[in-house]
From TrEMBL, chains A, B, C, D:
Residues 3-280 form the Aromatic amino acid beta-eliminating lyase/threonine aldolase domain. Belongs to the threonine aldolase family. InterPro entries: ArAA_b-elim_lyase/Thr_aldolase, Low_specificity_L-TA_bact, PyrdxlP-dep_Trfase, PyrdxlP-dep_Trfase_major, PyrdxlP-dep_Trfase_small. Keywords: Lyase, Pyridoxal phosphate. Its EC number is 4.1.2.48. Homotetramer. CDD domains: TA_like. Transmembrane segments: none annotated. This is L-threonine aldolase. The keyword Lyase applies. The lineage of its organism: Bacteria, Pseudomonadati, Pseudomonadota, Alphaproteobacteria, Hyphomicrobiales. Pfam families: Beta_elim_lyase. It is an enzyme of class 4 (lyase).
Length: 350, 350, 350, 350
């Protein structure tokens, strides 16, 4: 019953197998091997256009270096107020990019377009005192389990581009959003206006596979130097490439995300039918937020269920009562129906 | 015949096996799992004292974050003029630490203590215009295949500490130096005055395992924040821990280094007995520098031998002639005697 | 009728006279002259204890370097959401300190202590993902013309220190607040818990005189290097010292601030008695915020009155109507009663 | 007998007078007043083309921000090994630009073009590990009193541009070089290939007047934000403008530099004719380096002469003996013939 986070899961056997095969060979270092180049080509196919791809060690690195590549002195980047870049990266995006992250409100992890417009208006291009609007970053799927529709992405992109701002997408759970929307990678990104993507594999079955994807290679020209100076260029880079090869092979990545989402559906259905618990808000990805009695949560924890308490957001329709607690449950490629059912039984037991 | 670098090798089977085992489990993320903690304990044993250990993604990260933890505003760090931190890390140590790297000369990759003293003297502690001496970093084994003796380490440490400067050791090839000296990890580090160590596993059989080791845990208190802000905290950190577990088990790491050094010895012996080639200077680790006719090098390359041409250092006893070329050959845990012999035959063929 | 800002004023004759005298002498550079040292001593007297004083070029520099001296990696500084460090310094405090500025709400420029507590709680000292609470900065007088009482300062300081956070005060308009409260410099700072002060002279009659004042010299030990590395060490530093000498002589600085405040009082009284305009909210320093018909504001502007339109804050008791506009009026040491009366006549004219 | 540095001098009466006049007026802040704009126009005339001008607080700021405007990630800037940006600015150029300063050798403060070429060659444009050559900076007049000829400037510029590198000139003593060469400002800069200039007025009679001058305004487009974020935008900027107005009026700046140089000539002549002292090397600006008996130097110091001991450079034709000492003497606009003669008498006294 490991629902603490999808990064508590291990690695998928197909990915392990590919790593094993890679381990017995010699090959060129620092991302110049044939395998590295082949995987870059594979990203072109996945995204249906020529892209520039850069492997890095962590999702925080992907976000931070992507934003660094868009940075200007005095720049301000707009992100949802609960975004990972604001709340969970210890200031790394600010450190690497030299920009400030400016919070944009909106219900359940999604930026409200009107609020985005009003925030951007505070930082006009000649505002030497305020600083200037420079980039927008959105998270798909969001930190709170919701998913932007394709039209919503396009709306954020339209606003960004109208103000001359490139749009970055934090795709730590890219696949979970993609399979939910039934869209292609191209449709969920550049076809709707996304300029740069943090493409995460770690949470979805790799053990360490994160990439920055530029849809306009011209925007990527500083990234090789930014990456090296940021200590993010792996010498044995091909072991990242190998993970991505297996991950992208025969739609494995989509299958893994579908499985994680299905496990979350099973949780959602079970909690919806529960007498003791309720869903805190509607989610669609592999994250589920539930309100349940503190005693129930405590008992479940004591019986081995792993999950985190969550800070109550400002916009809860029905606030969390004194007796209750808000928790986050995350499923992964490795979650089993038995895990889910065991947890639901604990909840039902009250 | 892969002699380009030890980071062209793959990963050792024992390490793969341990990774496979790890991949089927769930465990806490971000370095808080039982395995992470167990490996930290293992480092205590290896170094015979309580140390603080931090895993990072690359050797550049280990060096840069170690120096960042020692940094002061206006600080200057002293390193050999051919050190990795100066020549091969794209300014990452400067970027993360905010310090300048000041070059110290010395024959074949080892700092001349007298020159170190005179460089430090240029940056007194109240020298607000020059900047102030703040740290010293040495590389063991060096970039040019040589190895500081224990007494030489102690001499560098003595000078550093006399001036109030902590001493960092870049141990990307720590094991290769260790087995050559026949010393214990403690003897080659804190017992001789080293304060912080970049402990590299990647070049010696892991696929990605680098650690920063503080011999005084009090010096490490900022590192958790420095690491996270630097985007170097792995979510599935335990996969680094797993590599280190296998690496340190039953002296595997020392055996792998002994093998690499032995292969270099075989190369050295062969080249010493050669009519066409000569050793450029004496080395003791798994790096060999040879001078051979350009035509011979070219022919060897065409027959599949991989190596890099090397920039002639200022202090070559016998300069490289017009007809000749200076090359670097690096052996690894995966180099075979057959590889070495095949290469030597190509050289002998002229 | 120059009410755009107090930094539109020139310099006071007594300050000019002192500068003239200084200009004919030779003296040691970079803050080491006898005059520099004498002025440092003068600050000790003004603040009734041994302080450490550092001259810098701008108020933004004073704030940024003060915060840089308090910084930790991953650090977060709390400031009112409308504070100069957040809104008007182009990210300089973030750039120099490496910290993020976290906004705290509160009516009319003053941090609400309860909101400060809840913001600090978001960043506990071991929160490697969020970042950690590191410093608090408050503005006295505030950006919106209000003034913290001594008890309010003490309350902010108490909260800060309870959480181990040093308290910085942005005193760009320090003197204006001081004379309004009738307090001594010591009473408005360290006696109530302020640790570091940006002491501004430029807006109150100097042409360029800003200082960072540390009430605990031990906290200042990195500042000489921070300042030099930040390009803020004047070679002819004694010309700053000379301005401060005249400024602090015979309470000139207090007289100038009293005058500016009195001119603001005259404005406030006039606007309060006006049929056409009203005070937007109550202020006590040399800043006045007024709501008046757009046509009236336009006409006044056309007749030479200088002032800025102001963004309507969220917490206006009586919102600004469509026909009206919110403006800011700032008086200075150089404002005359005639200026004020001329402006009031324009307003009365409608 | 103040020969310690030209920044020990005060300010010229004409500049004071202009400041006095400015102090009685109100005017727009932050560099937007009519006077600020008029002085920008004046720089166009002085340099015979449209330039972009930015006032900053210190020469270190001028150099650092100029280089920041040329910076690229992983960038390397080449400067003479004794340049102010390397030796005397506490790492500020590195801090603001994020680039490393790479030392180029050459006799007496002037970069040897061949050595510059070989240094640039170490950092090719695709050298992600080394870092990449990004800018060149030269000092005119140099730190050691010498002056690049126009042809020498052109040669440095040619090499820079051949490698795609913009050329910055540190003109802290611009005027002293200019009058020595008998060139126009245009001839000593953009007509010979200089792209950006630190134009110093402080050492030559202002009390604080430093400017960055871009000869191609397109290169300056980030500077307004860089300057504000660097805390270098003066609120009462027009007091810098006022100094420059007087400084540039009726060739005052050239007259002041001619005077300083003439005083240095007088020193040089006197020392050349001395039995006790000798010139350490030939200089042409307002700096003189002399070798004299330690006892003589000590005696002169005790009688009130101010000067600094100097570190013996590697390339002294005739080394400094044990009995002797190398000193630096700097003249300024305020040095009198009597000062010089008094000093020479002390030297003659032995």
């Amino acid at each position: 019953m490991f629902f603490a986070s999808d990064n508590w899961a291990g690695a998928h056997p197909a990915i392990n197998e590919r790593l094993l095969k890679e381990s017995t060979r010699f090959a060129a270092a620092y991302g110049t091997s044939e395998l590295d180049l082949a995987i870059e080509q594979r990203f072109n196919e996945i995204f249906e256009r020529e892209v520039s791809v850069f492997f890095v060690a962590t999702g925080t690195a992907a976000n931070s270096l992507a934003l660094a590549s868009l940075a200007k002195p005095g720049g301000v980047t707009f992100a949802h107020s609960e975004a990972h870049v604001i709340e969970d990266e210890c200031g790394a995006p600010d450190f690497f990019s030299g920009m400030r992250m400016s919070p944009v409100d909106g219900p359940h992890g999604k930026m409200d377009p009107r609020h985005l417009v009003s925030r951007i208006a505070r930082y006009p291009q000649d505002a030497v005192h305020h600083g200037r609007a420079t980039a927008v970053t959105m998270t798909q799927a969001t930190e709170t389990g919701t998913i932007y529709t394709l039209d919503e992405i396009e709306e954020i992109a339209r606003i960004s581009h109208e103000h001359g701002l490139p749009l970055h997408m934090d795709g730590a759970r890219f696949a979970n959003a993609l399979v939910n929307l039934g869209a292609t990678p191209a449709e969920m990104t550049w076809k709707r206006g996304v300029d740069v993507l943090s493409f995460g594999g770690t949470k979805n079955g790799c053990w360490c596979a994160e990439a920055i994807v530029f849809f306009d290679p011209a925007m990527a020209k500083e990234l090789p130097f930014i990456r090296k100076r940021s200590a993010q260029l792996f010498s044995k880079s091909r072991f990242i490439a190998a993970q991505f090869e297996a991950y992208l092979q025969d739609d494995l990545w989509l299958d893994l995300a579908r499985h994680a989402n299905a496990m979350a559906d099973r949780l959602r259905a079970g909690l919806n039918g529960s007498n003791t618990a309720r869903l805190a808000w509607e989610t669609r990805s592999n994250e589920v937020f539930a309100v349940l009695p503190k005693a129930t949560a405590k008992a479940a924890g004591e019986k081995g269920a792993k999950f985190y308490d969550w800070l109550e957001p400002k916009d809860m329709a029905e606030p969390v009562s004194e007796q209750d607690v808000l928790i986050r449950l995350v499923t992964s490629f490795a979650t089993t129906p038995d895990d889910v059912d065991a947890f639901l039984r604990l909840v039902a037991a009250g």
